Amino acid sequence: MRLYYCLLLFCLPISFSWAQDSLSVAIDDRYREDQFYASITYNLLSNNPNGVSQSDFSTGFHFGFIRDMPINQKRNWSIGIGLGISSNSYNQNLIITETSGNINFSIDDGGLGNITKNKFTTYLIDVPFEFRWRTSSAETYKFWRIYPGFKLSYLVYNSSKLKSDLLTTNVSNIDAFNKLQYGLTLSAGYGTWNFQIYYGLNSIFDDTAQLNNQSIDSRAIKVGIMFYIL
């Protein structure tokens, strides 16, 4: 019996040391950061044709998953590639109507009376790419982050809604929207609250969208708050 207790006392420190090493490896060498995201943005239109302006508050909602792939031993540098969905609305004075299957673009000149709603909305599948730097560790849940990147989006559905005293119209799946949209992104902040910006590098509309024989080269700028989870 004494031999049993002696062996037990001898083995306990070794077992405890081994458990500590195993836990350290599991935590320090394998953790990943910020793999789910959700954001709310205020959407702006830039590079508009003469006469086009925004009205009211335009919003965007973005959700998705980004695979975090650390590229150094400390795991504070990584690359993130993901997949997400988003919806983006733009309230403005661009009138989009359909006549005999043709889409027409014009500017509100007051001829429709009081306009209570005039917006177009895009629904996108997003593929974000981020180059990530952060001050995180396996034991730190609040840390600084700076994530510059690039986002490629594919348009799956769009609609334009107009409601006024004299006209109510709803047009969807408009061919004049660009199917592929892309831009630069930046997320930065500390802990839960992070600033986010997206700057579109190409137009929301394609070359067939014309206003007074001028291409509608409006581009998206999205500014908002990003929440990262796990």
From TrEMBL:
<dbReference type="InterPro" id="IPR025665">
    <property type="entry name" value="Beta-barrel_OMP_2"/>
</dbReference>
<protein>
    <recommendedName>
        <fullName>Outer membrane protein beta-barrel domain-containing protein</fullName>
    </recommendedName>
</protein>
<feature type="domain" description="Outer membrane protein beta-barrel">
    <location>
        <begin position="18"/>
        <end position="206"/>
    </location>
</feature>
<feature type="signal peptide">
    <location>
        <begin position="1"/>
        <end position="19"/>
    </location>
</feature>
<keyword id="KW-0732">Signal</keyword>
<dbReference type="Pfam" id="PF13568">
    <property type="entry name" value="OMP_b-brl_2"/>
</dbReference>
